[in-house]
Amino acid sequence: MSFDFDAVVVGAGAVGLACGRALSRRGLTVLVLEKEPAIGQGVSSRNSEVIHGGLYYPSGSLKARFCVEGRRALYAFLDSRKVDYRRCGKLVVATEAAEAPRIEAIFQQATTNGVEGLAHLTGAQARALEPALAVHSAILSPESGVFDSHGYMLALQGEIEDAGGSVVVSTPFERAEPLPGGGFTITAGGEGGATLTSRLLVTAAGLGAQDAAGRIDGYPADRIPAGHFGKGVYFRLAGKAPFDRLVYPPPIPGALGTHYRKDLGGQAVFGPDLEYVDVEDYSVDPARAAAFERTIRRFWPALPDGALTPDYAGIRPKLHGPGEPQPDFQLRGRDDHGLDGLVALFGIESPGLTSSLAIGEAVAGMLSDG
After folding, report:
1. pTM of this prediction?
2. Contact status, residue 201 vs residue 10, Cβ threshold 8 Å
3. Could you read off the pLDDT of 193-208 as tens digits, one per residue?
4. Which of 14, 291, 332, 358 could lock 336 by a disulfide, CB 3.0 to 4.6 Å apart?
């Protein structure tokens, strides 16, 4: 049978575009569908733009593997495409002796995960790097950094289009129906939209992952994991950035916690926190500044009163609710849902941006092997 495309990808965030690039690099004709009027308008544009080293994630997990593989590939890709980044390094800090065992456990996990260049620092050594830091001891991860995530996504789009593929915006995915001989009939574009055929299908819809899977005829409803919205807000500092490196306290349940970064423009940004919400609400309540100030002053006591201004919010596509253990990335293929030629992605939150190139290669491999 002749198909309009070899592969259709639902979602033009970082992960969807990375999947499209990986499939294009295998010589396939690729169409990426995006419901928003521009690429990367969801999870991919509302995060910390941090390149994670791969410190925290459980041994043998996809997060541990893809974060390290993806980070190594990402730096090389950013160099090749002249996308701006700063490999500034990260300090994971214990502000008191009681937190030291927690960061030591992170060091051991990071070592198991194959993270390069890690170092234990005493409080004095950490303050030699960042004099304004209040710290008992710390871990230095020199491979962590910050980057221009939108420039990165534009470069991914460019590679897809250079290979003859297309990225189409303002075109929501409506439905997919498996064809008897393999492949899918796909309807997209809303009222008056188009119908096309594709041999392969990838859903990388972020917060809409569950909805996208539910629009595929024959996808077992009991194989669609429950989704939760984990909202986090950010505050920006009015004044000079106090640190050059990323500064992270020990993680909180379900997330990495409120951290510090100096962005590529040289400004200091703090966040995100974590609040479970029921709807996509990107407002930032100025009253949350008080909780941020308390957290920040544990590692930066010199934070001036009233120096934080509300900045932006993001929502993470979590597969766990409050108090539940944090699960791994979910890349679900035929063995899970029974449909040939389909990979459905769920729960691609942090470190999904850092991991995106590795996720794309894994998805392309699943479809090629299948």
Report:
1. 0.97
2. yes
3. 899 999 999 999 999 9
4. 332
